Structure prediction request, 203 residues.
Amino acid sequence: MKKLRFACIRCGNCCTDKNTLVTLTYLDILRIKKGLDLDIDEVVDILGFFIFEKSLTNEDKKRMIITPIETEQGLAFVGLLKNSLGGCYFYSSEKKKCLIYNLRPMFCRTFPFSFKVLEEKKGETNNLINIFYTEKGKQYCPGINNEAPLIDTKYWIQLGKNTLNDLKNNHEVIIKWNESVKKGKVIPTVKKFLLTIFELTEK
Ligand code: SF4
Ligand code: SF4
Prediction:
């Protein structure tokens, strides 16, 4: 495995980038809801539903890390709301920090890395996985540089395994939701989607 260097210098680039969507799994939503003690209307207020402007092919969908959900307005990513400057709603420019650091989404925990299963073995925990810099990370994260310390591979690989597991669970939940919508069993409102995931507990 290639040796990777990184140390966060808390510049805030990843939290303030206008073109970055902080996508959420249902587990992220449950964690933030519980941690901030939010009711359903307050959860709606911190979410953004980013609708795809063009229809997606099956190949497009396969390439996506987070599965898009069916909504009343078409397929969408669920993410954290953006502030008026285009950054994350939870980033405080004054304090220069994340206001929900301990509850932050998986997307933020893993930045600037991404993970991929190299070899499927029996039992997910034994899968071999690879870790690499994301394109966004290479683009604007100053924590990636030749002077930065080598990463603690064991820590990051474990985080990667947990992340891939969360994504798999999330995929199953979204596919079930999308099928229910397509069969006309459910009207895909934001609140109905949230009520559906509120009934789930962490696997
Ligand atoms: S862009 Fe990189 S260095 Fe800056 S806050 Fe994000 S992770 Fe840290
Ligand atoms: S949730 Fe926190 S860490 Fe994640 S983008 Fe927003 S401010 Fe940054």
